[in-house]
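Here is the promised in-class demo. Please do not try to memorize the tokens; focus on the logic of going from shape to residues.
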């Protein structure tokens, strides 16, 4: 079944509400999500009325720690869902993990969150170990048209579109509160309103939308490969991370991250950080613990490889980084 919405977050919200409606998730059911997830995702769970718990990530895959995940599932029969995020758009194949999850409890609903990966319109969900896969073409995604999300759901599940009102001011307020919580290390208190959705409708037809994305995809990929090749050749190899983490952006790891970012912006360039360990933000008991999510965030910088960044910029930022390491 093809799912198509204004945002990938709406796909997630609708499937959660559908799982509740049709009895796949009970009152005490829990979804497991990674600690380094986008902070708005847990808010979707709160809005949908579905409980969740955090799992730290693996430094090897930068995705959810599989050993801890399986241990937790074995110990808690209330766990009925896993949101596996392909961090940084990695192509890591989690099929074996999904098989192990289903061996423990075949009713656990597995979501393959591929929102930072290259959109795949030919994905065969019926051959997948996951129950749902989600892609996005929203702001800052692999293909960025600032709108749109789609997914593929196994036919054994039902999907109901929820009628939702949307208020851009509500979304701005929610974003402001989240940013403040992250900045000051304080708890985030969720208040439900009309923040989820969009007031823009670029495409009403999935066929038309898919055709447009497929047409621009080769150009997007070519530009990313061009910029990535510059980074690979010019940057000190010691700061470069594994190539599998450089599809969406080009990842580097440095010991002086904040100083480096300041120098980058001072030079008229830009780069980005990534999602922090958001456990404390949502009252998780990881608050005073050293986590892999915190460690990875402390050193990872995302270098742009989309149309916002030119070859000239790539050479310039590479030289700056090399001179600042």
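The designed amino acids, position by position:
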């Amino acid at each position: 079944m093809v799912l198509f919405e204004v945002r990938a977050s709406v796909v997630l919200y609708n499937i959660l509400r559908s799982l509740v409606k049709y009895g796949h998730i009970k009152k005490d059911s829990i979804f497991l999500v990674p600690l380094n997830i986008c902070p708005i995702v847990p808010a979707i769970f709160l809005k949908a009325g579905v409980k969740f718990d955090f799992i730290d990530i693996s430094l090897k895959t930068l995705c959810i720690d599989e050993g801890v995940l399986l241990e937790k599932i074995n110990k808690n029969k209330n766990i009925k869902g896993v949101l596996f995020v392909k961090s940084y758009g990695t192509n890591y194949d989690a099929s074996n993990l999904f098989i192990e999850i289903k061996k423990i409890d075949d009713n656990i609903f597995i979501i393959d969150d591929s929102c930072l990966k290259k959109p795949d319109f030919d994905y065969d969900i019926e051959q997948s170990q996951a129950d749902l896969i989600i892609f996005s073409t929203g702001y800052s995604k692999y293909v960025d048209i600032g709108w749109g999300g789609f997914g593929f759901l196994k036919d054994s599940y039902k999907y109901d579109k929820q009628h939702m009102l949307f208020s851009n001011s509500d979304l701005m307020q929610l974003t402001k509160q989240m940013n403040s919580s992250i900045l000051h290390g304080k708890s985030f208190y969720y208040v439900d309103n009309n923040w989820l959705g969009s007031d823009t409708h670029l495409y009403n037809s999935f066929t038309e939308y898919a055709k447009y994305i497929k047409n621009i995809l080769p150009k997007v990929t070519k530009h990313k490969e061009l910029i990535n090749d510059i980074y690979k050749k010019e940057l000190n190899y010691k700061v470069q991370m594994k190539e599998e983490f450089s599809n969406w952006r080009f990842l580097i790891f440095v010991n002086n991250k904040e100083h480096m970012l300041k120098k980058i912006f001072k030079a008229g360039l830009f780069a980005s950080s990534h999602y922090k360990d958001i456990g404390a933000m949502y009252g998780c008991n990881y608050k005073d613990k050293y986590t892999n999510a915190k460690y990875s965030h402390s050193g990872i910088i995302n270098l742009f490889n989309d149309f916002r960044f030119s070859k000239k910029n790539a050479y310039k930022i590479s030289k700056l980084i090399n001179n600042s390491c």
